[in-house]
Write a structure and sequence with these properties.
With 421 residues, the chain is mostly helical. Helix 1 runs antiparallel to helix 5 and helix 1 crosses helix 10. The longest helix is centred in the last third of the chain and has 35 residues. The two termini are 28 Å apart. 55% of the residues are buried.
Length: 421
Amino acid sequence: MIKWAFLIGNIGYICTLRVTGMWLMPYISPASQPYLFFKDLTLIGLALALSQILNAFIDPFLGRYISQIKRRFLFQIFSVIAFSIFSLVPFNPIYNQGTDVGNLIILLGLLIINLLCCSLFQTSFLSLLPVLAKTDHDRSLYSTYVTYGMIIGGALSLGMSGFAVNLFGIKNTITLFLIIGFIFMMISTFLLPFKEVEQSKKANQSLLKDFGLVFKNTFFLISLLCMLAANSVYTFFTFIAPYITEVIIKKPHSYTSYAIGISVLFAAVCTPLASKMIKVIGALKWMFYSFFFFMISLILIGLLGVFSDIRLLLSLYLGSCILCGIGVGQTLVLTYVLIAKSVDKEPAGKSTAPIYHAFYNLFLKVTTGAIAFLISLLFEHLGSSFERSLGIRLSFLIPFIFVGVTLLFLFLKRNDHQLST
């Protein structure tokens, strides 16, 4: 029952998270009218980046609080309701078309609240995995089902939302998928065995000591770098897919659904491979090899800006989606396995799991915010419209550099015993 709870809960969480992340920029800055609400597109990236960064530094406090909370079940229900409601608010027409600063304040405030509610659910939900997993087999099993949940949630939100946007518009599509996500997260909450969750003692140490506790764990530090590099690719594709389809490929948003659907299909088919390879060569070493799928995928995206033949463009986009899907299927399983292994290496015990997830979320959100801001800079200075699209064509370099640096680091550390665990 636990594995199904993780599967269902992550379907709801990803359905909510990804559909809002994918369509927020096209809602605020559509390709046909990029300056609809903001005369300076870098302000959109600034709002996305600042909201991620400000919220990220709240996460360690949330991790400490959640690890000590008594009524975890009621807290989980509250977090589901809050996350669902505040994911819809930024898609309401409350922006003033004449005032950039006013729109920045509105958007920033809404995003901070939305991300705070996201953290409440995510930290509480995913930190249950290392707590409820009793053995290595449990860790791999639950991580695989969490990954399948992410893939199915991605298929629903990213893969199907393009069709829905063509039919109903962005706002109605968001409402529909948030209702679906809410139902799935609620079902998961009632399935999880919260009575088995160990409550941490009230912390007397400072937050700086929490930093020390987490960052003395060398395995976690190496794992963190890998997980952030993988996230740079997820974030890039989430932001850029609608623009590639509409501006570069010059196809309707339904083609975004085709592209994401193909990627999700290959992610699902190849996910079981991760569990097998972890047993053969270890989690971190397989993460190293999995990054090559992302590197080739990003190169193919870069080549979209070189050619103009529509058949060749579609072929390159198809190849990129397939390779990205394979990489996603591997790195998602590895992410949850690596966090669980990091907690296992913690002398203070499994009750520290929310703290580890909170610090992981901190750096994850900083990375996500930085990538969003860099993409918006490219859009502003090099273009994101039909007439001026160099910003879209060069945006693949952002995750490409991040993943490349991580690959180089892992190559230099290839003889480290940590990589074989």
